[in-house]
Protein 1
Amino acid sequence: MTAPVEADQPPVAGPGANLIIALIVVVLGVAGLAGSLRLDVGGPDAPGPGAWPAMVSTALIVLGLVLAARARRAGDAERFGRPGLLVLAAVGTMVAFVAVVGTIGFEIPTALLALVWLRLLGHESWRLSIALSLGVTVAFYALFVGALGVTIPHLF
């Protein structure tokens, strides 16, 4: 049974919506696991490039199954509305990032992703959004390419 909705709280989603979301999480986890297995997970002594994505995907699958088992009892989930569109926009921009990073490197997509998230989703000022986007890109480059020597597509 769901709790009554107070006037200042958004409407609850209900068991059907909870189950659908849980199944989406499981499907995303399975898709991520399939992709990570194609990257070669390696072993405990020498993890491959698919090791971390495989662990995260497995966690998604387990959490999605737990959500599905609790779908009828989870009364605190909100019904999808306008705030959920921001989440969809964030996921959409991340999908676009992944789609282009292999082709043009990570610098430009990283700067654009950070700019979109800060300015459009976070409503930060243009000055702060541009400065942080460039700063994050430089920091990621220094960390992953310079310090760690990670083999990711990059321009420089």
Protein 2
Amino acid sequence: MRTLLSVAFLSLAGCAHTAQPSSSTPAASSSAASQAIVAAPDRPESDRALDAGRHPAALLEFVGVQPGMKVAELMAGGGYTTELLARAVGPTGVVYGENPHVVLERFAEKPWSERLARPVNKNVVRVDRELDDPLPPEATQLDAVVSNIIYHDSVWLGTDRAKMNAAIFRALKPGGVYVVLDSSAKPGTGVNDAQTLHRIDEQTVRSEVLAAGFQLGAESDVWRNPEDTRDWNSSPKAAGERRGTSDRFALKFVKSR
């Protein structure tokens, strides 16, 4: 179990269209503002090293994050995505960065604390909570909640995902979005590969989130890789040179009421 946990935690360290195929690319899908955030000279070099595989400007554009917004990231880990969101919402916005206890204890406490000490992250609220009920009572009327390559982790963590998705629905304002990106498992495999290959069946995510009352608002193929055989471990340590090349689905769900 310790080995599996270690691999899973390492996966944490390190554009849109309306439910129809698209040939968009990161450069074409990302606004100048998003590109400027990614190009900021004070971003850590360790973050920049992950950019090629993560397409951060495209992510910001897909989420639709703007200055002044209230957003949250689930299982923020060391904070790569959280800092991008903090830069995007600016000093008038707020970002709730959530981490479960086991992630903090085994992996994230040091890099997360160091991240939050950086001035650019002064608008980040640290949230130490479990995924079943990931956001504090004051996190209401949110504009967006982001789950970036961690939905599969909720499976091996034993999370009540129906409860998690319902909590996110409550925290969002009408019109708010819940963005889920993750590495694709083979169709029909459900959650079987969540712990071994760090992948999840896209249809499973769609079904679970829609069951919470969301509507599918958009999806993106920016992170797609049709050459991915989906039979290898996509966690950073196991992936090696293939890190950042797994086929990833990107879904934007909307709270319509």
